[in-house]
């Protein structure tokens, strides 16, 4: 007597569906965990940096005072931009396909929010305010005077402890305290290789983050894996090597708007928000708008430094 085949029996049974979505689009950015955000009114934040101090002189009794030049300042503005996306869900799909543990609207809104968060993290490193609707990231915000120049070859240099030391010493705005070093995982692995080559050196020096997570450290400074830091940068000569990368070090602001960097967001609409736009006019779709008014500020140029042209 013929038996029921698996193919036929499958028509009479439903497969078990796992609730939720397994993330498959992931870029590691541990640095994002410690970045503070400052809410601002208006669409930009303006600040004044010292440009030149007023002069002074040594004077004996009766000497004419000639030190009369005033201090001068440079005004810098950091504007907010809008990161936005619409989640549109068909009414029939929402009504008939949301009872299996995966609400269709929640899935689509969550995906838009993740995309916006990833776009911010990309701009945090690679953004350029000279491009319409972007804000400047670390690659653009770091001052030329804070860019290390100890590159010995036209193609760039392999990572060394001396480079890390020089990078750290360039950060001065908190009396030499450095809050972070952020770099691609390729460079972190190169750092581990340096430690192993010392013979007997420990490679388990770590710092605990507020969340409880542990990250590696150098001289007590946490090393944050940040895979948004590119490893496809051109070498100094522009042709020899196009697989260079940059290491960033600096401070984060403490709320005083005086040190290092801080993320910016609208004070009256902080963070990612979801707006119910309503029914689409010509189709049976419902629109949910996901958006974030955000930016990045570098309060002190002495609170951000970089070492470019690292080949490993």
CA radius of gyration is 26 Å
The strand line-up of the biggest sheet is 6-7-8-5-9-13
Q: How many extended strands? A: 13
- Please estimate the helix content: 10-25%
Residue share in β-strands? 25-35%
Low-confidence runs (pLDDT<50, min 5 residues)?
Answer: none
Number of domains: 1
Class per helix and strand makeup: alpha+beta
Q: Biggest β-sheet, characterized? A: 6 strands, mixed
Report the CATH C-level class. Alpha Beta
Give the second-level CATH assignment, the architecture: Alpha-Beta Complex
Keywords:
six-stranded mixed beta sheet, phage-related protein like fold, five-stranded mixed beta sheet, 312 residues, alpha+beta
Kindly describe this structure.
By secondary structure, the protein is α+β, with helices and mostly antiparallel strands. It contains six helices and 13 strands. The protein has one domain (25-50, 76-310): phage-related protein like fold, CATH 3.90.1690. It has helices at 6-10, 91-96, 104-126, 138-141, 161-169, 185-198, and strands at residues 37-40, 44-52, 72-79, 81-90, 180-183, 206-208, 214-218, 221-225, 245-250, 261-266, 273-279, 285-298, 304-310. A hairpin with a 5-residue loop joins strand 11 (273-279) and strand 12 (285-298). The longest helix is centred in the middle third of the chain and has 23 residues, at 104-126.
């Amino acid at each position: 007597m013929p038996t029921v085949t698996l193919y036929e029996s499958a028509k009479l049974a439903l497969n078990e569906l796992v609730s939720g979505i397994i993330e498959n689009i992931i870029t590691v950015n541990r640095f994002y965990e410690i970045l503070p955000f400052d809410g601002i009114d208006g669409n930009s934040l303006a600040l004044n940096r010292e440009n030149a101090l007023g002069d002074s002189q040594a004077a004996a009794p009766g000497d004419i005072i000639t030190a009369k030049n005033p201090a001068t300042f440079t005004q810098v503005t950091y504007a907010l931009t809008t990161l936005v996306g619409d989640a549109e869900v068909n009414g029939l799909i929402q009504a008939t396909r949301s009872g299996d543990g995966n609400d269709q609207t929640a899935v689509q809104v969550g995906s838009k929010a993740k995309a916006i968060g990833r776009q911010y993290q990309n701009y945090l490193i690679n953004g350029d305010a000279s491009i319409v609707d972007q804000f400047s990231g670390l690659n653009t915000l770091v001052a030329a005077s804070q860019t290390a120049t100890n590159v010995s070859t036209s193609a760039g240099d392999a990572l060394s402890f001396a480079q890390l030391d020089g990078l750290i010493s360039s950060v001065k705005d908190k009396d030499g305290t450095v809050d972070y070093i952020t770099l691609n995982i390729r460079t972190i692995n190169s750092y581990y290789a340096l430690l192993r080559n010392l013979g007997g050196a420990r490679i388990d020096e770590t710092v605990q983050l507020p969340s409880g997570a542990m990250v590696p450290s150098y001289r007590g400074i946490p090393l944050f894996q940040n895979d948004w830091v590119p490893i496809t940068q051109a070498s100094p000569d522009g042709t020899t090597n196009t697989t260079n990368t940059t290491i960033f070090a600096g401070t984060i602001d403490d709320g005083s708007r005086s040190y290092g960097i801080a993320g910016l967001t609208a004070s009256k609409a902080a963070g990612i928000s979801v707006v119910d736009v309503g029914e689409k006019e010509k189709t049976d779709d419902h629109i949910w708008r996901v958006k974030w008014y955000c930016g990045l500020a570098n309060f002190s140029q002495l609170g951000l430094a970089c070492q470019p042209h690292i080949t490993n």
